[in-house]
Amino acid sequence: MAGAIDYSEDSIRSLDWKEHIRLRPGMYIGKLGDGSAYDDGIYVLLKEIIDNSIDEFVMGAGKTIDVSMSDHKVSVRDYGRGIPLGKVIDCVSKINTGGKYDSKAFQKSVGLNGVGTKAVNALSNSFTVQSYRDGKTKIAEFEKGELIRDEPEKDTTQRNGTAINFTPDDSIFRHYHFIPEFVENMIWNYVFLNSGLTVNFNGQKYFSEKGLHDLLSRNTDAETMRYPIIHLKGDDIEVAMTHGQQYGEEYYSFVNGQHTTQGGTHQAAFREAVVKTIREFYKKEFDASDVRASIVGAIAIKVQEPVFESQTKTKLGSQNVGPDGPSVRGFINDFVKTELDNYLHKNPATADAMLKRIMQSERERKDIAGIKKLANERAKKASLHNRKLRDCKVHFDDTHERRQDTTLFITEGDSASGSITKSRDVQTQAVFSLKGKPLNCFGLTKKVVYENEEFNLLQHALNIEDGLDGLRYNNIVIATDADVDGMHIRLLMMTFFLQFFPDLVKAGHVSILQTPLFRVRNKKETIYCYSDEERRNAIAKLGAKPEITRFKGLGEISPEEFGLFIGKDMRLDPVILKDANLKSLLEYFMGKNTPERQQHIIRELRVEKDDESINPNLAAAGEAEELAVAV
């Protein structure tokens, strides 16, 4: 065939370990990202290093781990046994080299595949490893996986253990920065799951006495709990649960200390076992959705040689607890059936409160059954010709390799949605257009989700009516103008998600789109600026009175330019829930106009003046900014 590419033996080549990791990083750490999402690659790198220190703790070596972090650099020091000095370089630079293939030494280890630390090394601009062992120390330094310093062993007075410092490669993780809240949540999970472990993170000590009980206490508003947390522990299994007032169900699941954010066989078995046990205890065939409505639960199990569905270990695929052990489903069901049943018999007040919560859910479900049916029929018809939704081809509930990139932009008005629609990636980016300011739904029941056409269509577009299992987009991005009206719409949408789908926010799926406020350019270069400081820096760089454009709304940005801001350099601010007391938080900002909030607005409202003119839009709406900070 004319023009065919020559395919011969010379076309075949083998990549060394670091070349393969750098060429296909997604195979090893999932998505890349810039740090604005909790599952971005830079946090996977950190997790891989800490996992090794946790394994040392589990083996009884070292009760403290020190972690320090800046925007771009991380240091982890444990006080375990230390890597054997003669194998320090091999352990961080040779694939399939490690001490975790001996099942006797690491039967229930987190890091099993001998890949994690090597991936961190290959994907870092700088990577330094130092082992302290029996009065001797060995240090080695790498750049992007290449060994650049190999010092001979020296004497030391330091305690045994391993220290690793790394700076992720900014050519792979573009514009990245670590968000401390994500790292703090990761560290809390480590101490909840490892009683007796202390982690010092940037000078603050993290420690837990009650394990998963403490996890639920930290992440659940105490005022909304219908009964005290039920906390059950056994060999290789621990569970905690309560019912609250929120909509939906929420679970935290772990395997061998690994936070399985996408669940798996153990989480499914836990949900099933709770329903079965409660039905048998009360001798009534409750609808499963009524039993699980408003439940907050946590489960942690330990299994031998766990099988995860990817290197990032976010979903358990194992069917059995070990090679010769029972099934995960049977193991969890037997434990929950025995221990939860015993607990309810011994604690009649808790059993009574649980029954009342389940019966309340049953009444609420039946109360909205009629309108829910009509709303779903309308949504089904609308979905065929849904003018609000410009869908994409790949979805989060697919098995497609780009499922992690799936994004739904929620925009205000047709002009903004038009620009995004024309410049988006039709494979993974969808657009949902609001017709104006949505309803303030604070204090309303979930009935409003079905009565309000816009909310109902959005719920169906996301496919979250029955939980997050069928979620169609990994990223839900609120894209509004950077003015007072845009901030208000942002606030109303955050209220909708926090009120009815808080698990969507807690799981890290909701973000705010940053778009540039200014364009500064001369004949040779164009710089887009996201703050007044960036604008001043751009003016200083370009000099000679460059042309400055202030973008007042998303509709003013051309589709060609918009494509630059929603592609690989897209900037997102994640909505991070810092305060478990959602009810009081939303009531303050979105409830009736109390004197306290009026005084807050008067005190905080301001007009910011830049070098040239007054820009009221830069002040935005004090309420929206304050709630974003609080959340």
Blueprint (SSEs and pairs):
Blueprint: H1 17-23, H2 26-29, H3 41-58, E1 64-69, E2 74-78, H4 88-93, H5 116-122, E3 124-133, E4 136-143, E5 146-150, E6 154-155, E7 161-168, H6 180-193, E8 198-201, E9 204-206, H7 212-219, E10 230-234, E11 237-243, E12 250-255, E13 258-259, H8 265-282, H9 288-292, E14 295-301, H10 328-346, H11 348-367, H12 369-384, E15 389-390, E16 407-412, H13 413-423, E17 429-434, H14 447-451, H15 453-462, E18 475-479, H16 484-500, H17 502-506, E19 510-514, E20 518-521, E21 526-529, H18 532-542, E22 547-550, H19 559-565, E23 571-574, H20 582-590, H21 595-604, H22 616-619, H23 622-630
Parallel strand pairs: 1-8, 12-14, 16-17, 16-18, 18-19
Antiparallel strand pairs: 1-2, 2-7, 3-4, 3-7, 4-5, 4-6, 8-9, 10-11, 11-14, 12-13, 15-17, 19-23, 20-21, 20-22
